[in-house]
Amino acid sequence: MTAAAPTLTPEEQQNHGNFLDAPKLQPGITRFWLIRHALVEQNARALLYGTMDVPLCPESLIVQQPMYEALARRLPSDARWFITPLSRTRRTAEAIQSAGYGARGLVVEAGMIEQGLGEWQGLRHGELPDKLQLPPHQFWPLSGNESPPGGESMADVCARVGATLDKMAKENTSRDMILISHGGAIRAALAHALKILPDTALHFSIQNLSLTILECHNVAWRVVTVNELPGI
After folding, report:
1. Which positions ≥6 away from 183 have C-beta within 8 Å?
2. What is the pTM of this model?
3. What is the pLDDT of residue 17?
């Protein structure tokens, strides 16, 4: 005897048939447009800068102007804008808005800041290995469970970012949110959405000015795109 097919609610019937995979993103969905800030200046890149407030590379702001213009065209026009407390996210947001998006208010969301490296911030990359208690990650300076003195492990960052995303989703239901953040925080967002370990999330490439889109459907998360490079 064949089992009867389960009865779907009206909402489930609407969702049935992969309507979310249409070429155009559906309106009225709680959606995060996560963008990693632009390239920081050369001297800062030689250091573990973490939550240090380092400036952007002035040359890249000029050379990568087409990428800012592409982001301005790609992003939803009626979105709410969020940045972190670090000036590199504010400057990136302003550059995108100046490239054709138009000026919008910027709300600071501290919960999406980069991994705090505590006493290790400001070290040159070559100085770090001797201080580690755990083998470093292949694609990150330290293991997901390594806790810098006075800082955060990536596991801590995943918990912080996950709680922040849940809060923002509740406060901005059915809205588009553009969030200029950081490589570590965006990887942590993917860990939260996919329910994966920090070390697994660190395998994602999140390049400067790349776009990652996440959707929140009640308590279910959906990944739309990761590390999409504008105009490429």
Report:
1. 36, 114, 206
2. 0.91
3. 45
